[in-house]
Design goal:
The protein is α/β, with parallel strands linked by helices and 345 residues long. It has a single domain, classed as Rossmann fold (3-Layer(aba) Sandwich), CATH 3.40.50. A 5-stranded parallel beta sheet has the order 2-3-1-4-5, sandwiched between helices. 37% of the residues are buried.
Length: 345
């Protein structure tokens, strides 16, 4: 089956997962977990890194983001899906296996929704491989993104660094918007959670699937185990009160830090958000140095913890695959033994 891909993108914590979950409620759409491994796999295939499908299989089995999909394919089964000279067929085969395992009632769905936040970073690859793709840019007030992301063990850990991260992702998205005038649509997170019926109906028309009222309730995405805590609201109906909670979560200094970056200050206005300051505030050199130092120390500490979690996830999936392989061998041997016994009789 050739899927019609829909690539959602935006800054981290902007609602890409929420939107993917809502669209995935359609009987005609499949939403898979974040798929950073697909971006990297495409790079490897373009560079002819792998000599054989087995080499590509070994690489995938050691990739944390592939493990997060929880596919329990054996090594042999996965190797049979990989066609090195046909990347699209390879990707769609993996998606199809995911559908079989987690959405067996949607085998006829023909829209694949990928909500990986940095999809636009790999726009040229995705477009060349999927010329029929549609793109959705979801944008959220950068200060809300800052309030949401700073307490996590990945990403920027203070308002000054969050501002730059948000502006960089927004620039990537605006480039894609310009290149894909007919195939890219922008939606604001705040509009999605306050007017879900209206916004989802518009998006369904854009990606050419029927709108169903049940889509506003959520529950179209199987959230990977390791992200359940940070995505605890995914699977529920959008909560309008989340739109402006950041206003009570950020201090005045954090607002100054965020809006001090000229591009972020400009983008807030261009995206329709009201700024706290008329012009970008100026920060002292010692304060800027503190922000960079805080970011560096937090990154080192959090990355160490995140790496341990990644290794545990990969080991867990490998264990499940080994168990499945052993069970298949046992079943095959038992069947062969039974066949031989009947022949003797």
């Amino acid at each position: 089956m050739n899927y019609r891909p829909v690539f959602i993108a935006g800054c981290d914590r902007s609602g890409t997962t929420l939107l993917g979950d809502l669209l995935g409620c359609s009987p005609w759409a499949i939403t898979t977990p974040e798929s950073q491994f697909i971006h990297e796999l495409l790079l490897h295939l373009q560079l002819n890194t792998f000599d054989t499908p087995r080499a590509a299989t070994h690489w995938l089995l050691n990739h944390f983001r592939y493990a997060a999909w929880n596919l329990t394919l054996t090594t042999v089964e996965l190797e049979q899906l990989l066609i090195l000279d046909d990347p699209r067929a390879t990707i769609e085969s993996i998606v199809k296996e995911y559908v079989k395992q987690f959405h067996a009632d949607k085998l006829n769905a023909d829209v694949w929704v990928d909500h990986t936040p940095d999809n636009f970073k790999y726009y040229s690859q995705l477009k060349s491989l999927f010329p029929d793709a549609r793109f959705i840019h979801i944008v959220r007030d950068g200060r809300a993104v800052c309030a949401s992301i700073r307490g996590l063990d990945w990403g920027p850990n203070n308002a000054y660094m969050s501002s730059r991260h948000w502006a960089e992702r927004l620039q990537q998205a605006l480039i894609v918007e310009g290149a894909e005038a007919e195939n890219c649509v922008r939606v604001r997170y705040e509009d999605l959670i306050t007017r879900p019926h209206e916004i989802l109906a518009q998006l369904c028309e854009f990606i050419d699937i029927p709108f169903d009222e049940t889509m506003t309730k959520g529950g179209g995405l199987v959230v990977p185990d390791f992200t359940r805590t940070q995505h605890y609201l995914v699977g529920q109906a959008p909560k309008a009160e989340k739109a402006y909670q950041w206003q009570s979560q950020l201090s005045q200094q954090e607002l100054r830090d965020f809006e001090s970056y000229p591009f972020s200050h400009l983008f807030l206005k261009k995206m329709g958000y009201k700024t706290e300051f008329e012009s970008p505030p100026r920060l002292s050199a010692p304060h800027i140095l503190y922000c960079y130092t805080h970011e560096f120390i937090s990154y080192i500490f959090n990355r160490f913890r995140h790496r341990r979690m990644e290794h545990r996830e990969v080991a867990r999936i490998k264990s499940l695959q080994e168990t499945k392989t052993t069970a298949k061998l046992t079943h095959t041997r038992a069947f062969a033994h039974a066949s031989n016994s009947r022949k003797v009789e």
